[in-house]
């Protein structure tokens, strides 16, 4: 972890550039949230058979919501519920009123389909505008948008918001990295948007071409769609000489822009609570946990028309923290990981971000790594394949690997094998990186 002192922080957003939601007082926010919550519960109950049945089964109706804490009495929703109602069964408006559809890539089973009315697209665009300003961007700037375009919400979501809010957008999408470098050189963008691991790939490409990545015009990187650590932030900021901030979101709740970090504090994303109500639940019992405790992040949409979502279980682990740069909105700690990415090695829980934090403390190691899971006997084993930095002599790798094994044992509590591989040997990310390679099923 970098300390506050070593962080570079940007200038705060002047009040006159804030939108109405950002100017709400805490009391005004809570009263708006309650009205919007009551409307959303009614809208979902009246128009989506799935919610009507789920509420009825629990013997609860929208009229029973008198305060924000009453939300805890309502049932939660999971990805499986969207799959069971594939493709359009969760929509609360006739399909003709749905202006756009996105879907999450279904690695297992059917994809999750989400929809937006024209008003939903407008709200989303405004929240992207708010997120870019919070990141340090200002209307009039040029944005290089390297999130993937298509059914994924990253590319088009960020694009439409930036365009509506006064930015010039270059819709490059992900991949063809040499071309990305050329266009950054030629167009001189102020902002880049992509996953943190794809930004590493872009940095590599600059270095291949003999260009110092710190010499570009870029001032702001808005990175998200996958977990990343302060060590990674430091790597991106120092290599590119810019501010790197965290944008969070998920398709089922909207897409990018559910929460965004403020550049003046860089202390975890502020949740745009005028549109999304967050809760933290114990991932095993489903019971609500108080602010400050780590658990599963759950969201209820407050303004969505096409796909109102009630108590959606994200499977992302985080804590809710008090607001800082926008005091009325709570922050979320940066995501530790997804419950699905949890690896259990001899009873010890491990997330890739914990390993990432340790690797960044070793100057000879690059940020390119993955975790390999095997099961040679009855027990799962973890090995970490990590690239050396180009300036790290191979004669020192054995020693470096041994030191890293000790550091992982001390800081994460797990015994892992560390294999240092030469620079440029591991596969590079073009979007969301899959950190875990599961070879357990290969073993018979
Ligand atoms: O990844 C939306 C997005 C696009 C967010 C671009 C930010 C930037 P999905 O494909 O539905 O949507 O994946 C959502 O990605 O539940 C988290 O597990 C993970 N995720 C998203 N943002 C972050 C972040 C988009 N900032 C899933 N930090 C979420 C950690 C993130 N994980």
From TrEMBL:
Transmembrane segments: none annotated. Its EC number is 6.2.1.30. Pathway: Aromatic compound metabolism; phenylacetate degradation. PANTHER family: PHENYLACETATE-COENZYME A LIGASE. Pfam families: AMP-binding, AMP-binding_C_2. Residues 92-300 form the AMP-dependent synthetase/ligase domain. GO terms for molecular function: phenylacetate-CoA ligase activity. It is an enzyme of class 6 (ligase). Residues 347-440 form the AMP-dependent ligase C-terminal domain. Keywords: Ligase, Nucleotide-binding. It catalyses: 2-phenylacetate + ATP + CoA = phenylacetyl-CoA + AMP + diphosphate. This is Phenylacetate-coenzyme A ligase. Belongs to the phenylacetyl-CoA ligase family. Catalyzes the activation of phenylacetic acid (PA) to phenylacetyl-CoA (PA-CoA).
């Amino acid at each position: 972890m970098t300390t506050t002192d070593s962080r570079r922080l940007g200038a705060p957003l002047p009040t006159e550039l804030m939108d109405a939601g950002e100017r709400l007082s805490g009391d005004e926010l809570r009263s708006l949230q309650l009205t919007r919550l009551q409307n959303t519960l009614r809208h979902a109950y009246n128009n989506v058979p799935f919610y009507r049945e789920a509420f009825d089964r629990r013997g609860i109706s929208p009229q029973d919501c008198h305060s924000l804490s009453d939300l805890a009495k309502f049932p939660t929703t999971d990805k499986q519920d969207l799959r069971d109602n594939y493709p359009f069964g969760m929509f609360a408006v006739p399909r003709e009123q749905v202006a756009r559809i996105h879907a999450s890539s279904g690695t297992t089973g059917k994809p999750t389909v989400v929809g937006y009315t024209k008003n939903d697209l407008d709200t989303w665009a405004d929240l992207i505008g708010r997120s870019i300003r919070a990141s340090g961007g200002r209307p009039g700037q040029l944005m290089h948008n390297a999130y993937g375009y298509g059914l994924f919400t990253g590319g088009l979501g960020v694009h439409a918001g930036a365009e509506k809010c006064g930015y010039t957008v270059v819709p490059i999408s992900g991949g063809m990295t040499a071309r990305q470098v050329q266009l950054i050189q030629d167009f001189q963008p102020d902002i880049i948007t992509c996953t943190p691991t794809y930004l590493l790939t872009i940095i590599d490409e600059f270095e291949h071409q003999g260009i110092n990545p710190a010499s570009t015009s870029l001032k702001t990187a808005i990175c998200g769609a996958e977990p990343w650590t302060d060590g990674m932030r430091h790597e991106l900021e120092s290599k590119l000489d810019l501010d790197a901030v965290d944008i969070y979101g998920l398709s089922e709740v909207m897409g990018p822009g559910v929460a965004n970090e403020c550049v003046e504090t860089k202390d975890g994303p502020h949740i745009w609570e005028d549109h999304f109500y967050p809760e933290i639940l114990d991932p095993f019992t489903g019971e609500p946990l108080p602010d400050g405790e780590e658990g599963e992040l759950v969201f209820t949409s407050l303004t969505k028309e096409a796909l109102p979502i009630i108590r959606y279980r994200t499977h992302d682990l985080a804590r809710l923290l008090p607001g800082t740069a926008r005091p009325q909105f709570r922050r979320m700690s940066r995501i530790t990981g997804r419950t699905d990415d949890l690896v259990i090695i001899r009873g010890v829980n491990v997330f890739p971000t914990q390993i990432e934090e340790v690797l960044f403390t070793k100057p000879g190691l690059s940020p390119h790594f993955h975790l390999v899971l095997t099961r040679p006997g009855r027990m799962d084993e973890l090995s970490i394949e990590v690239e050396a930095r180009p300036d790290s002599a191979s004669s020192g790798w054995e020693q470096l690997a041994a030191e890293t094994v000790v550091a992982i044992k001390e800081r994460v509590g797990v015994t892992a094998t560390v294999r240092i591989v030469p620079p440029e040997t591991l596969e590079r990310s073009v979007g969301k990186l899959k950190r875990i390679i599961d070879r357990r099923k290969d073993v018979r």
